[in-house]
């Protein structure tokens, strides 16, 4: 990574150059791979590189999207990126990015630094849920990360605007996630870290004869996923989205994405999708049968993905987004209760930040997003 005094320049790079850079990193978000740009067909994507006198030293996938009334300009979005040295002089990295994107028609930049700001152990989360006086993770004692604190401070000083809402879920990526550290651990270690309910459910699945395999039957997955969406009241993505996702990511790396299918007596009872980049794996989508939930196919799927991640030498198994509530009266608390049973830890990231490049255009965009948010809240009853 460059020294403070070295000048950095930003320029477009090819998908092949971008992928080569990703492959030399220990961990990069799958949202920052060239393939993800091909998955997000509603956005125009480009790969950008940072150069110093040694060559390519940073990279980012930028998704461009115009918004109503601002078709001449785009929002330039780098989800969970870019891949740069976040411990260094951020101005040296972000100033040339801003100049390049503004010169090419962006009215604002939105990025999500892949740096942690706080971590809570499973025991801390469990105690917080049991404590009637605690309502949110942020009410609990926390292990703060100095790198994350430094990044948020420097972004604020440079005029970047935080975008993550209180519940951690906004228009982009969730700020809070649940992760299981894998480095230096065995399967027995991981099982001991799980709570009694999780271990019992895994035994129940094994005793019932649930079999988990990997496969390519996306139609079977999608049928179960639509069933899950109807039961849990969310809007499912179309089958075509998953077909595009598997084609794009598999073409980039045959081990990038994998479908897990749990069957009981021949019937599909659960299914899930795992993504891996370097030493980080993510549980991205899941589905389960209402009729046979008692055989615990979802737990069996998760355990198969955790074991495969461990065998692949991964450092982290990522269960992705949670809301930061520990309030038992909040209907969202079930999500963190399910995930905390795996052991692991709750993690808060720096969240997403905007830099307005054209203030008038950004105000129009901000007003549009606020109005859309109010309409959505009215429709969903949030």
From TrEMBL:
Organism listed in the record: Jiangella alkaliphila
> Some GO term, biological process aspect, for this entry: which one?
regulation of cell shape
Q: Which Pfam family would be a valid example here? A: FemAB
User: What name goes with this protein?
Assistant: Vancomycin resistance protein VanK
Q: Which family does it belong to?
A: Belongs to the FemABX family.
Alphabetically sorted, this entry's keywords are: Acyltransferase, Cell shape, Cell wall biogenesis/degradation, Peptidoglycan synthesis, Transferase
> From the Swiss-Prot or TrEMBL record, what is one GO molecular function term?
aminoacyltransferase activity
Can you tell me which residues the record assigns to a coiled coil? none
């Amino acid at each position: 990574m460059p020294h403070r005094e070295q000048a950095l320049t930003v320029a477009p790079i090819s998908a092949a150059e971008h992928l080569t850079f990703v492959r030399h990193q220990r961990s990069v978000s799958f949202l920052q791979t060239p393939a993800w740009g091909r998955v997000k067909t509603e956005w125009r994507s480009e790969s950008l590189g940072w150069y110093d006198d040694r060559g390519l030293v940073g990279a980012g996938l930028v998704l461009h999207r115009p918004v109503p009334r601002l078709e001449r300009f785009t929002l330039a979005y780098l989800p969970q990126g870019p891949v740069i040295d976040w411990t260094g002089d951020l101005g040296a990295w972000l100033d040339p990015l801003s100049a390049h994107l503004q010169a090419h028609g962006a009215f604002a930049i939105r990025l999500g630094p892949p740096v942690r700001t706080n971590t809570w152990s499973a025991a801390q989360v469990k105690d917080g849920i049991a404590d009637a006086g605690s309502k949110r993770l942020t009410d609990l004692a926390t292990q703060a990360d100095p790198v994350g604190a430094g990044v948020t401070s420097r972004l604020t000083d440079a005029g970047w605007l935080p975008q993550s809402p209180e519940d951690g879920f906004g228009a982009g990526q969730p700020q809070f996630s649940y992760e299981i550290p894998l480095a230096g651990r065995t399967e027995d270690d991981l099982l001991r870290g799980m709570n009694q309910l999780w271990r019992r459910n895994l035994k129940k699945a094994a005793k019932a004869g649930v079999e988990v395999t990997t496969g390519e039957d996306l139609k079977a997955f999608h049928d179960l996923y639509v069933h899950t969406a109807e039961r849990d009241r969310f809007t499912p993505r179309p089958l075509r989205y998953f077909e595009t996702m598997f084609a794009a990511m598999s073409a980039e790396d045959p081990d990038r994405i994998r479908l897990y299918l749990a069957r009981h007596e021949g019937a599909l009872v659960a299914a899930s999708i795992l993504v891996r980049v370097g030493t980080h794996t993510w549980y991205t989508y899941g589905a389960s049968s209402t009729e046979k939930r008692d055989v615990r196919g979802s737990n069996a799927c998760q355990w198969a993905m955790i074991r495969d991640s461990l065998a692949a030498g991964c450092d982290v198994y990522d269960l992705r987004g949670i809301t930061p509530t520990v309030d038992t009266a909040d209907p969202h608390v079930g999500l963190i209760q399910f995930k905390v049973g795996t052991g692991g830890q709750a993690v808060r990231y720096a969240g997403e930040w905007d830099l307005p490049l054209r203030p008038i255009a950004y105000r129009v965009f901000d007003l549009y997003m606020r109005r859309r948010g109010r309409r959505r809240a009215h429709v969903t009853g949030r």
